[in-house]
Amino acid sequence: MRKKILLTGANGQLGNELQKLAPSYPQLQFFPTDIDTLNLCNKTELVSFFNTNKIDCIVNCAAYTAVDKAEDEIETCYRINRDAVQNLAESVQKQTQIIHISTDYVFDGTGNTPLKETDKTNPQSVYGKSKLAGEQILMKIKPESSIIIRTAWLYSSFGNNFVKTMIRLGKERDSLHVVNDQTGTPTYAADLAKVILAMIVRSEENGIFPAGIYHYSNAGVCSWYDFALKIHELAGIAAGKVHPVPTSGYPTKARRPMFSVLDKTKIRETFGIVVPEWEQSLRQCIGLWCAPDQAHFAISAAGE
User: Fold this and answer.
1) What is the pTM of this model?
2) Residue whose C-alpha is closest to residue 64's, from 73, 53, 52
3) What does the pLDDT read at residue 253?
4) Nearest to residue 247, comparing CAs of 138, 154, 110?
5) Among 57, 101, 58, 59, which Cα is nearest to 81's?
6) How many domains, the chain?
7) Is 209 helix (H, G, I), strand (E, B) or coil?
8) Quick check: is 24 in a domain?
9) Confidence band (pLDDT; 50, 70, 90) for 290?
10) Residues spanned by the domain of 51
11) Separation CA 249–CA 71 (nearest Å)
12) Which of 73, 260, 263 is nearest to 154 (CA)?
């Protein structure tokens, strides 16, 4: 019997990458949903859905991710990032597994060594606080059947993201300023999607669902400025357009972590996965966009 997977936030970057990979996993039956087909804030609707579909595992990609906007839309942010997670956890059967996507923003980013799952959390923004609240609720209600994956700097050929923005602005402007004192690692959503599916399949094969918190991003370290330079290089945009600027010179409403490199040791050792270098994955992603059958990227990026 095929394992039934509810995919929430299916129209987002990660959700779309998971759907793209789904045909390669015939042993899994996916139920992709988004706000227009399943409202996670409506508990009655959720209970009805689960009673009808008997879901085995939830991959929760749904989230409020407008980091600066969240500073003003606090209630909405918490309703999606905390309350919806609670609704999911309380609406399913005890044995239903949940894989929930979280963020590096649960940390304050004041350290200088890769962040482990056991490191102290101290979010500095409404977004980060709301995501941590979602984590805490999930681990309180379903600690034995929940996996939380914290990730960072997500990009994809789907949706809006830093990579697309840098390519668009690189074509439109003669000069760009990008912060060079915030350090982390980009995450290609397609890589994270592969990891999530490997977690599901291997847990099924082993008969063990290793619940807990895990960190995942690509391997390596860079600043946003380094990231932008590599994006332009791989996209064939003339060098010299990107200039470094400190965070103090680019004020934002929400505070960003200054250091958010994630330690991937736990997820590598638990699931036996290989974590690609961030430059390798970026090259692959931009290569797909530039391929003849992916010409839509140039259109979508220019229109954002």
Assistant:
1) 0.94
2) 73
3) 96
4) 110
5) 101
6) 1
7) coil
8) yes
9) low
10) 3-160+186-219+260-277
11) 20
12) 260
Residue 152 carries which side chain, given as an amino acid letter? A
Contact of 180 with 223, CB cutoff 8 Å? yes
CA 11 to CA 33: how far, in whole Å? 8
Spatial CA neighbour of 104 closest among 127, 73, 80, 137? 127
Integer-rounded Cα radius of gyration of the chain: 19
pLDDT tens for each residue of 57-104: 999 999 999 999 999 999 999 999 999 999 999 999 889 999 999 999
For the segment 157-184, what is each residue's pLDDT rounded down to a tens digit? 999 999 999 999 999 999 999 999 999 9
What secondary structure does DSSP assign to 99-132, as a single string? EEEEEGGGS----SSPBPTTSPP---SHHHHHHH
Among 78, 127, 155, 214, the active-site one is 127
Could you read off the pLDDT of 126-162 as tens digits, one per residue? 999 999 999 999 999 999 999 999 999 999 999 999 9
> Residue 294: is its pLDDT beyond 90?
no
In sequence order, which ranges of the chain are alpha helices (DSSP H)? 13-21, 43-53, 74-78, 84-91, 126-141, 162-172, 189-206, 224-235, 265-271, 278-290, 296-302
Whether 238 is in a domain gets the answer: no
Spatial CB neighbours of 205, under 8 Å, sequence gap ≥ 6: none
Amino acid type, 204? E
Residue type, 100: H
Query: Active-site residue 25, yes or no?
Result: no
Evaluate whether residue 170 is within a structural domain.
no
- Provide the CATH number for the domain around residue 39: 3.40.50.720
89 within domain boundaries? yes
